[in-house]
Amino acid sequence: MDAVLRAAAIYLFMLLLFRIAGRRTLSNLTNFDFVLLLVIGEATQQALLGDDFSVTNAFIVIVALIGIDIGLSLVKERSPRLGKVLDGVPMVIVEHGKPLHPRMERARVSEEDVLQSARQTQGLERMDQIKYAVLELGGSISIIPQDGPRGPASESGR
Amino acid sequence: MAEHEQDESGMWSSRSHPVSEDMGFQTAEWTVERIAWGALFGLVVLACLGLFSVGPLSSTTIRDGTGRLQAELDRFYRNGATENMRLRVEAGPGDETRILLGAAFLDAFTVEAMQPEPSESRSVPGGLELLFRRGENAPLSVYLSLRPDAIGFTRSEIGLAGGGKVALGQFIYP
User: Fold this and answer.
1) Domain check: are B46 and B70 in the same one?
2) What is the mean pLDDT of chain B?
């Protein structure tokens, strides 16, 4: 029982903390972010296992963690409201080539982040080639390119 | 300019294309997030001050009624961690001091080490009596290394044989 409680406590704590930190915090995973994640894992390990280094304890902790995860995903499926609270909602940050700056500022996304994602995923060079950029639940930015050769001229008359 | 103003008014409205947004929720989320950042920062400051053991908020000295026995300890301990405590007994007649660790103390803590080691220890009603030898009329300091086993608010007692006792009240974090 002890091991399950530990797993549940750590799961909830991490869920809360990463929700607070915001989805952009570790989304790009630079080298340093990666090291940070490793160190967080190291700090968590002791609390998860306690003094008990038996294989059984490790099994119980792992099963409990994955069980909680599955359980939560089932609950989220039934209650979209809870899903929103736990995962957040996607948000448009570039619309027809125009960055929505107030939104981007509050979400801690820079124009450079959007352009980087546009280059990496779509091979785009400029903001006006982007029809929509969406900040997704996981903190990644997905890019929908303009149709046709030069979008903005045709879109601005909308 | 007109176009710009139009942008501003539509800035916080929810789009349904290409994804369905909920800007009301998103704005609330940001607000909660900002408050929580403040709370995180506050927590770090409190941790530095000793809310979670070791620090000015945590260290304390408790004396018995007569002032002969004095315990230096932390108000906050953590379950499973090694914590320190120091007992001081003022100089008195004779060359030995008997300290009584109460039953509640023994239940709440595992004594991992004690310096100096008692020359004799025996079970007495209400706890464990330790006999320390010291120089004639010399004060005595005992350093304890403890591992808290209990969780939550813990009351315990340490006393002097034939003297006062100190009541310890500590909070032990899980």
Assistant:
1) no
2) 87
Please write the tens of the pLDDT for every residue from A116-136.
999 999 999 989 999 999 999
Q: What is the CATH number of the domain that holds B75?
A: 2.60.40.1510
CATH level 3 topology of A91-147:
CRO Repressor (3.30.240)
Count Cβ atoms within 10 A of the Cβ of residue A95 and give its class: 0-12 exposed, 13-18 middle, 19 or more buried. buried
Max Cα-Cα span within chain B: 95
Helix (H) or strand (E) holding B9: helix B2-10
Structurally, chain B folds into a number of domains equal to 2
Instruction: Please judge whether A102 and B11 are an interchain contact, meaning their C-beta atoms are less than 8 angstroms apart.
Output: yes
Indicate yes or no: CB of A134 within 8 angstroms of CB of B40.
no
**B137 interfaces chain A, CB cutoff of 8 Å:** no
The interface predicted TM-score of the complex, written ipTM, equals 0.76
Contacts of A88 in chain B (CB under 8 A): 26, 29
From chain A, pick out residues whose CB is under 8 angstroms from the CB of B26: 88-89, 91
Q: How confident is the model at residue B9 (pLDDT cuts 50, 70, 90)?
A: low
pLDDT band at A149 (very low <50, low <70, confident <90, very high): low
Does B69 map to a domain? yes
Cβ-defined contact of B22 to A89 (cutoff 8 Å): yes
